[in-house]
Design goal:
single chain; 32% helix; 82 residues; mainly alpha
Length: 82
């Protein structure tokens, strides 16, 4: 949402950026779209980036979108309680 708000408010224009927002979805993932040159930047989860690079893509994380990671570790509670 923030990307669209920034575009609507002219923030990209203010700093000289020509931005086209390409919605995700469909059969091509954001990592694939970046890897094959369809887009210059993509927004994805760290786990997707790790999987893409394990599969042979050579992508680089350049920014953390959230102040805190949107990923969490989970566990089965009864395995850790007495």
């Amino acid at each position: 949402m923030g990307y669209y708000v920034a575009q609507a408010k002219g923030y990209y224009d203010e700093v000289g950026l020509k931005v086209t927002i390409t919605p995700g979805g469909g059969d091509i993932s954001e990592t694939t779209a970046v890897n094959n040159g369809t887009v210059d930047f993509g927004v994805t989860w760290v786990a997707n980036l790790t999987s893409a690079n394990a599969g042979g893509m050579d992508l680089l994380e350049i920014a953390q979108v959230y102040q805190r990671s949107g990923l969490e570790l989970v566990y089965k509670k009864d395995l850790f309680t007495k």
